[in-house]
Amino acid sequence: MEMDTQPHKKHHFGTSYMRFLVQHCCLVITLLISTFFTTTTAFDYADALSKSLLYFEAQRSGRIPYNQRVTWRDHSGLTDGLEEGVDLVGGYYDAGDHVKFGLPMAFTITMLSWSAIEYRQQIEEAGELQHTLEAIKWGTDYFIKAHTSPNVLWAEVGDGDTDHYCWQRPEDMTTSRRAFKIDENNPGSDLAGETAAAMAAASIVFRKTNAHYSHLLLHHALQLFEFGDKYRGNYDASVGVVKSYYASVSGYMDELLWAATWLYKATDNKMYFEYVLSNAHSFGGTGWSISEFSWDVKYAGLQLMLSKLMREEKEKKHMAILEEYRSKAEYYICSCLNKNNDSKDNVERTPGGLLYIREWNNMQYVSTAAFLLSTYSDFLENTNEKLNCETGTVDHEEIHSFAKSQVDYILGSNPVNMSYLVGYGPKYPKRVHHRGASIVSYKRNKGFIGCTQGYDNWYGSQEPNPNVLVGALVGGPDGKDNFEDRRNNFMQTEACTYNTAPLVGVFAKFLHIENHKTVHDCNSLLVASFK
């Protein structure tokens, strides 16, 4: 009888094959769980992220590029600036009309850039970094054009009053395209400051991938800040036509502090840090306790950014003023969390739990709050600190959970099960207050649609918009969680670029966390299989 001289192969397929089985079972389980929860309680942040970036393509003005993904849009505003002898083609329409307003456009780019700075890795992991960079660059390319000399910045193209008389596609525009500027004799420190902040923030974003462009943006940012600081005044006093639409209620001091903060972050030049310290009291940086953060009011954002500097050893000698900035930043966070003693110091909430600041386009304040809460939660986690509010101590997880509750409300976890991010989920607004989306696409019907023809045939229609404005965050529900999906209900159904911009980073963060949980669960399953 022959001896078996081969090694015993009882486990020749055991370890490796078991690992293969577990990995594939883990994949199947993940897909099943994902499918189940997508239809019940969890949300697809990857889909929300990709759709949010599509929205900026729908808002493009100028010559549409070859790689445009929103195919119902075409070229528009190709003569912008012609009357004034300057090239102002490009940029973004802010909302559902066709005026290019400089202040909200700049804030949009600042928030997109901040998203890319805070969550670049997470956005890249999701495969959306290139689209994010394109969205930012579409805005900054326009700002470069609009900043025609050191002390001249073109503030607006189009006139809100005449624009609102018409309801037509951007491709058919017949309304005035007159351009308005700020200069030494007609100052606009708020607009110059916000545009400087946007270009400084964007310069940080492009530093790794396009050093020359980054340097160019920083050059413009430095000039704009100097211009805004030297020739002080509110831009709406110089550009009167903007007052009914984007009046600078907070003034210009917050934007100058905001711009200096971003320039310090972009350059590490102590001059800008000294600026925010020396002007902390006189400009309201350490005086204002604010419970909103928006295109107009920047205090909460700059207070939060500056409070983080307390952790840097090189700034220890400035602790007293930084502590005041941090105190105001934490007031904002605590007010969102309903953790201040006086109810008047807390942000109201709807019965469904949504932060509620005001009736008109409330979602803009929700998205910026979600962003600031998310970044501050990260800060506390990284520094192993807690937040001390008047009614108790809060850890980073509680802040993160509340930010997530606001985002999930936006995506459909609300009393009416409505996603307020257009195109996401099974139920979302179908009659968005948006000229281009509400009229048959120029690509499908190139026949001219006139000013009043749009009102007669499209504005009053009860039918859903023929074009879905994917990724737009509409104004949202009222204080009782009620929402009416009517085109003429502009307080609730109009979307703006600065609504969606902060969500890009937040969606990427939440997606990263969800993916990390999935990998952790699978790894736990894998380890358990070998015990």
Automatic annotation (TrEMBL):
GO molecular function ontology, one term from the record: cellulase activity
Residue ranges constituting the Glycoside hydrolase family domain according to the UniProt record: 45-506
Protein keywords: Carbohydrate metabolism, Cellulose degradation, Glycosidase, Hydrolase, Polysaccharide degradation
Enzyme's top EC category: hydrolase
InterPro entries: 6-hairpin_glycosidase_sf, 6hp_glycosidase-like_sf, Glyco_hydro_9, Glyco_hydro_9_His_AS
This protein's record includes keyword Hydrolase: yes
Catalytic activity: Endohydrolysis of (1->4)-beta-D-glucosidic linkages in cellulose, lichenin and cereal beta-D-glucans
Aminoacyl-tRNA synthetase in keyword set: no
E.C. number: 3.2.1.4
Superkingdom in the source lineage: Eukaryota
Entries under PROSITE patterns matching the protein: GH9_2
Pfam family, any one: Glyco_hydro_9
Family: Belongs to the glycosyl hydrolase 9 (cellulase E) family.
Name this polypeptide is given: Endoglucanase
Organism field: Vigna unguiculata
